[in-house]
Amino acid sequence: MAENVGVGLIGLGTVGSVVAARLIGSWELLTTRAGATPVLRRVAVRDPGKPRDVDLRSVPLCDDPFAVVDDPSVSIVVEVMGGMDAAAAAVERALQAGKTVVTANKALIARAGPRLWTLAESRGAGLWFEAAAGAGLPIVAVLRDSLRADSVNSLDAVINTTTNVVLTRMRNTGERLDEALLDAQRRGFAETDPSSDLDGWDASYKLVILAWLATGAPVSVDSVDRRGVRDIDRIDMAYTGQLGYSVKLLAHAEIRQQPGGVHLRVRPTAVPEGHPCFDADDSDNAVIITSDLAGTVVLRGVGGGGASTASAVLSDIVAAVRARARQPGPPHTQPRQLLSDEEVEVAGYLRLIVDDSADARALVLQALEDRGVPVIEAVDKPPLDGPFPQLIVLTGAAPRAVHDRALETLDTLSSVRQIAVSLDRVEPR
Ligand SMILES: NC(=O)c1ccc[n+]([C@@H]2O[C@H](COP(=O)([O-])OP(=O)(O)OC[C@H]3O[C@@H](n4cnc5c(N)ncnc54)[C@H](OP(=O)(O)O)[C@@H]3O)[C@@H](O)[C@H]2O)c1
């Protein structure tokens, strides 16, 4: 008969209820995969009196995460409650006690992953967090296990479902961001307070985790060059579409090997047709890894939701049971320099409101070239809200600092009324 391994669950919401149902209802399948039976022993929630969809049978329900951690019959603690302080306290306590932790908490792993990892190692425990990076996309396993011998050079990802649902709707319907957001909320793809998604925090957490796995570099979330989507105007969704682009909240990691350096950014970016992120629409997520040996690896699929995230959590539980207390292969810690704005190149999409004069266009393009920013294409557009015409400029690759200085110059030109929008752009191959 297979041995039993006690599992404690903290959180029984969107993710936790699917995890619990599977642990209870599909234990035979999980036993076959794990070589031992993960048995749900105790569950903590905020409000034990709330009606639940999942039938816990005789598993005790409480409102104290520490009661789950301290239960002597629990050797794997699954944290799917979210938040920072209470979750961190429970996870730390479990690791201190030498218990293995499985978590879906991206903020926790992005902010404290390397420290928790070291703690787990020192206590002979394991720390598993597949669901924290790409939810159901098995990106952690690919970076940690499949590309073990590769040097990863870059990561590009559409990894925030809320913004992707909103931007896709804006492009398809011509709606404003606030209208598209309401629809996403109605469909359950955006929270009542969507700040973490719209402001790029959620994508930054995931990017920091991916970069840590790819390089060993513990980059602070506050070092991510982060810009959210709140300023995206539907007119730019239309104009970029006409030029063969789709605007995505793109998470990008640039990794230099020698001399070593890393740059992480999350910005709304015009992505060209043919790029694997171009049509990763709505709830689809995509992650593109380029490495020296494997070349380009693309993962694509549903990036969130209860079932997809539970798939990753359950997979970690099975792997943790199989590995017993061992760590899932170390993301060796190897600090790297952050690349400066002089070292990182970007291409751009600009929308300018310009004077209605014959030489306005020529002055703008000349100023960009003079400042070291190549002009790839310029398109005149009629006035939108006022009397002045618009000029769309696609700029070629130049260091971010050069690009920013060129924008400052444009701002001083009398023929430029306003720099309405400046977006990053991925150049077509
Ligand atoms: N949902 C997704 O698509 C998704 C995707 C990737 C990662 N994640 C991550 O997975 C985690 C869980 O997300 P979720 O969507 O399942 O959240 P959720 O639906 O809000 O569920 C949270 C659960 O935690 C419980 N809880 C909250 N605070 C607690 C406390 N102080 N003590 C004990 N229990 C507490 C809640 O209890 P009550 O039920 O009593 O309120 C609830 O059962 C988060 O870290 C999230 O970032 C979620």
In words, what does this structure look like?
There is one protein chain. With 429 residues, the protein is of the alpha/beta class. It has three domains: 4-136 and 308-323, NAD(P)-binding Rossmann-like Domain (Rossmann fold, 3-Layer(aba) Sandwich); 148-302, Dihydrodipicolinate Reductase, domain 2, CATH 3.30.360.10; 345-425, 2-Layer Sandwich (Alpha-Beta Plaits), CATH 3.30.70. It has helices at 14-25, 27-34, 65-70, 85-96, 106-122, 130-134, 139-146, 161-173, 177-186, 195-198, 201-215, 234-242, 306-323, 360-370, 400-412, and strands at residues 4-10, 37-44, 61-62, 76-79, 100-103, 127-128, 152-158, 225-226, 245-256, 261-272, 284-291, 295-302, 337-338, 345-354, 375-381, 390-399, 416-425. The strands form two sheets. Strands 7, 8, 9, 10, 11, 12, 13, 14, 15, 16 and 17 form an eleven-stranded mixed beta sheet that branches. Strands 3-2-1-4-5-6 form a six-stranded parallel beta sheet, sandwiched between helices. The radius of gyration is 24 Å and the shape is elongated. The mean pLDDT is 95. Bound molecules: NADP nicotinamide-adenine-dinucleotide phosphate. The site of NADP nicotinamide-adenine-dinucleotide phosphate (NAP) has 27 residues, from helix 1 and helix 13.
Q: What descriptors fit this protein?
A:
single chain, 429 residues, alpha/beta, Rossmann fold, Dihydrodipicolinate Reductase, domain 2, Alpha-Beta Plaits, 3 domains, eleven-stranded mixed β-sheet, six-stranded parallel β-sheet, 15 helices, 38% helix, 27% strand, binds NADP nicotinamide-adenine-dinucleotide phosphate
